[in-house]
Amino acid sequence: MCRVAEGAAMGEEKDGAKEGRKGEGPGPEIVGVWPAAVWIIVGAGHYLNDPDHFAGWKGALYFVFGTGMVALVGGIASLSARRTVAGIQERLLKEVRHRRDLTTWAIALGLRGLVGLGEAVLVTLLALSVVAMLG
Predict the structure, then answer these.
(1) 80, pLDDT greater than 50
(2) Would you say the pTM of this structure is higher than 0.85?
């Protein structure tokens, strides 16, 4: 009986500790799907234009290693940029409007679109420079 009570108490502690940690870590959103998708699209476009350019180790290096690195590094940078923009947006919108409405939603959507466009441009430029270096 004593062990059952201890196990129940430990189980309650573990569940309580898990609930407290849910918001702390970045979680699965740390992997940047958007930057990796842009990387793959740029590489696929170059592959369709000149398949011999990605023959052998160059294709493996670009698509396997490069996509993983862009997904991880791009995800971390993207998460940081999104959190920074969200924080700035919250402060600015609190000064102008004190409640959420359609206008604040449109502004938030526009800012997210600008961050996504900036990420896409940076990843495209990186992909083009890597393709040129592999050349």
Answers:
(1) yes
(2) no
Q: CA angle, 130 as apex, 32 and 28 as ends, to 5°?
A: 10
Q: What is the spatial distance between Cα 55 and Cα 67, in angstroms, rounded to a whole number? A: 17
The CA-atom distances, in angstroms, between 47 and each of 71, 120, 135 are: 20, 19, 12
Burial of residue 36, with CB atoms counted within 10 A of its CB: 0-12 exposed, 13-18 middle, 19 or more buried: buried
Q: Which DSSP category does 1 fall into?
A: -
CB atoms within 10 A of CB 100: 10
More confident residue, 2 or 129: 129
Identify the pLDDT of residue 19.
Answer: 44
Structural tokens at position 80: 């940081």
DSSP string, 62-78: IIIIIHHHHHHHHHHHH
What the block records as the tokens of 64 is 């396997």
What pLDDT does 29 receive?
Answer: 60
